[in-house]
Amino acid sequence: MTSRIAKENHLPVTVPAPCPVTPQARLRRFLRWGAVAGAAFVLSGCILTSDLPNPALDVPPAYQAPKDARAPAPKLDWWRGFRSRELTALMEEARAANLDMAAAAARIRQADAQARVTGAALLPSLSGGLDASRSQSSASGGSGTVGGARVRDSLSASLAASYQLDFWGQNRDALLAAEETAGASRFDHDVVALTAFAAVATAYFQVLATQDRIRIASNNIANAQRVLDAIRQRLQAGTGSDLDVAQQESVLANQKAAVPVLRQTLAQNRHALATLIGRPPESTPVRGGSLSGVSAPRVSPGLPSELLLQRPDIRRQEFLLAAATANIGSARAQFFPNITLTGQGGYQSVALAALFTPHAAFYTLAAGLTQPIFDGGRILANFELTQARQDELLQTYRLTVVSAFADVNTALVAVRESAERLRLQREVVAASRRAFALAEQQLRAGTVDIVTVLNTQLTLFQAEDALAQAQLARLLAIVSLYQALGGGWEPIMERPVDAL
Questions:
Q1: How does residue 69 score in pLDDT terms, banded at 50, 70 and 90?
Q2: Does residue 74 contact residue 483 with C-beta atoms inside 8 Å?
Q3: Is 1.20.1600.10 the CATH classification of the domain at 57-123+168-336+371-498?
Q4: Could you please report the per-residue DSSP string of 337-356?
Q5: Could you tell me the residue ranges of all domains in the chain?
Q6: CA gap 400, 315 in Å, rounded
Q7: 325 near 53, Cβ under 8 Å?
Q8: pLDDT tens-digit readout, 202-237
Q9: What tens digit of pLDDT does each residue of 293-319 get?
């Protein structure tokens, strides 16, 4: 897919010459200005502005990973598909108060202001001045004589104008580059927002998963305590041994030791959520809950060609590439002469009453042409620098597109395989619970050895913890798919796009 920006041709600007006093002077001045304008027209026609280079991308017709054709395309508020009110509330807070997004919004304002600063070079500059001075000469005359002191007043009011003719398009290309950079900053904000939303969802699901794992650990501690009590009863009855008791006490201690680590993880993710919504942890209560209360939405990735319009990082690189292309035109124009027109006019008098009278008027008109002759290769090096920068951004654009396709395929595979893993892990947990229940019954009946009991309870503990992690992996895979698709899909057509 190739994007091209049609630039306008840079036409010469015709500036009328001031009317001379005599016909001969009028003819000479007309010939001089005509020669300059004609040369500028010819040279400017030889300067061709560059379009965006062809990235030569091979856009696949479909994704390699299978997809669910019944699933809808992602919406702008894609997080609502998980059907969690608390997650939705956190997302809205992040939208309003995330500090990274606020900084990205400030960068947009900076880029817009910089574009206005750059565009000012296309317009003439006008300044006004008002001066008043009084001077007194020395009261001592020459040759030892003494004369009277003289006081002299000077008053002036003037306007000065200056304009650089943009025959070669240097300033216009610079403005175009600044505007494209401002456009890139907007998509950079979208990248930051998408990253922040994905981080909020990830941290929130981590909170839920950790709470589930803490509950599972608490249940496992209770189960291990019941088994320990049963083994101690067997020891008192003479059918058990101290070794059996010590082994079960080790299992119970391991289960208790895992809880502080989980609590630390829970606190870390809650603090991460607080940072993402721009609030201190003390004022960010996160109730949480369980992963079982979160829905897993189905998402259709659409076509690979659509991805190039939806991913903000691709659009950002596209705008940066366009800005680099415009900079090449601006750097090329530095090889040609600069033509500047300046003028100043106003009134000057020694008395305020006579300041604005006709005989106090004055004016100055000037035109200057500066052609670089030798600068040590600075202009050529700068031109080659802009070309190399364009090539770098072209390769970065290609890499971003190729990586986007890989991200979607990887996310689709993760969604599919995590769903299968979750299904199988639920079967493992069901079988492990049944085996542990039977082993506990036989332990109380005295018909099973302690090794079987230890194995069945450890298997159950690990299976239940793995189930919580499988549920988390399933939800995180869906979040990764949303992120790989560029978040919610909304048609964005700021530049014509042609699919190869």
A1: low
A2: no
A3: yes
A4: -EEEEEEEEEEEESSGGGTT
A5: 10-46, 57-123+168-336+371-498
A6: 10
A7: yes
A8: 999 999 999 999 999 999 999 889 888 888 888 888
A9: 999 998 888 888 888 888 999 999 999
